[in-house]
Amino acid sequence: MKKRDFKLVVIGDSGVGKSSFVSAIINQISNKECVQEKHPPINIPLDVLNHPECITTLIDTKCAPHQLPEEVQVADVILLMYAINDDGSSERLKRFWLKELREKGYKQPVIIVGNKLDLLGQEEDKDYHRIFKVIKQLVKDFNSVEMGIECSSSKKQGIYDVINCAQRSFLYPLAPIYSIADKSLTEGFRKALTRIFRICDRDGDGVWSDTELEKFQKKVFKRQLDYSDIAGIKDMIEEELHDNSNKRVITLEGFIALQKRGIELMKIQICWTILRFFRYRDDLTLDESMFTNELIFDQDAGQTVELSEIALSKLRQIFEIRSNSQSQKGNTINQKQFDDIFYPVMCRTNFPHLNQYYPQEQDITLNQWLAMWNAFSFFNYKEAYKLLCYIGIEIKLSDTFKEQNRKDSWSSVQKNIDRKVFHIAIVTRIKHGQLEKQFANLPLIITTIQNKTYAISLYDEMEAEQQIEKRRLSIIDFLLIDQNCNFETAQLIPIFSYDDQVPFWTQINKVNEILHQNPFGYSDFQIQQLKKQNGLPILEVFSVISLLAFTLTGGYFLSKKILQKNK
């Protein structure tokens, strides 16, 4: 683990021994007495503590009785101290300190420290459960409280234990993965474990065999399991779940139960070792550095990105696991199964909803499932890659996508014969009639025609000017322009007139025919112009006037004016 800066702030009522505690640490480090009302921040040498990866700064505080010290703003972990021999200071933990921290929005882990252990009588000192009596209710009432510990600053008893506990709380935070009050794993941790389980389920059968468990252990912990180790793990799962469902194979619930038992046995470090191996941060989102790689393609020249066969194969496997295990039909998934696939996702996404697919059905088929991914990747491959990682597909970005050829010359267009995704943009003056009914405020409609995916979007004239002309040119394959619309384009894109009196899907199917009559729907005239391009950007060769002077074959035209003229 790489070294991490760690700021540990000590707070509490005046007289509970905060500065004495810091003095005791300094004395242990330097072997000299140092007594002050408030110490400046001190750096604790790495070699005197159990976690040298923490570059620890201990910060003393002093403030008015009803005020939080400013230093809590920089704290990674807070030591909230009270005096064991003073019932008033322990009552203030809940009545003021923890309440104030919560109301001010501080969410750092809090460790309750009972100081002045030496002032208790010998019999009282034997009461091992004393600290748990103090924090029992605090843990229920305040999510930030992680543990309690006792020490004696004057006798230098347990002071390093306090620091070590704080470091562990920083390196292996409990709150993101476990609720002490509910005695249960957090939803975020369960999501992360679901993703990890899927990644290590190499054969995709929804359970772990002994071999998969061994590979997981060796991969994460660099340790080989023997037969007795595996048997012990399964016994632990059986005790947690109170059944023997994991005797032959380990289920997802069994894997989750194993982590819960580990936390309750104070083996939190094991959970975080697993999480960090699979690139999780402290907030249980994936490390953003996983998604920083970019593909190199020329969007301005009409080059697009599509999912590779490797990625599509993995998506097929995910679909088939759910359809075969739960669906009676065996070839579809329903909304619940759809949501289950995306359960591990810990980021916002614009992935299409089921009602964006045409024809709209309660369940979706494999082809529809793949079409949704094809369309999503077409518009935003980076977000698609992040989503693939979250749902449990382990694949490099460079293996996930393939770049299609450019569309700014005839030679490039001829090489695009294997394209699977096309974008049809409809431009209208206002969203009216069957268009309004068809889109129903959806950002996109997705359909499959002859094994090709079509993403259909709707723009009004202003949106078309702002988005199609300036930013979205490269991913428009065909324009349907409403007859009442004044929108014109200087781009070399096949265009057809949209007629509100003709059924919507009749016109979409007509576009499909046009797109495949000639390469991507280009007319003979456009093909001739593409042959002249020699790779030059389209806008450098064409002007609006020259484009408006010619018509496209098949009855579709370059602009609204020519459309009206030829009606």
From TrEMBL:
Keyword Hydrolase on entry: yes
SMART domains, per the entry: RAB, RAS, RHO
Location in or out of the cell: Mitochondrion outer membrane
Signal peptide extent: none
Entry GO CC: mitochondrial outer membrane
Highest taxon listed in the record's lineage: Eukaryota
Domain EF hand associated type-2: 224-309
Main subcellular location of this protein, as a coarse class: mitochondrion
GO MF annotations, alphabetized: GTP binding; GTPase activity; metal ion binding
Transmembrane spans: 536-558
Membrane topology label: Single-pass type IV membrane protein
Keywords (A to Z) from UniProt: Calcium, GTP-binding, Hydrolase, Membrane, Metal-binding, Mitochondrion, Mitochondrion outer membrane, Nucleotide-binding, Repeat, Transmembrane, Transmembrane helix
Protein family (similarity comment): Belongs to the mitochondrial Rho GTPase family.
The name this protein goes by in its record: EF hand associated type-2 domain-containing protein
Record organism: Paramecium sonneborni
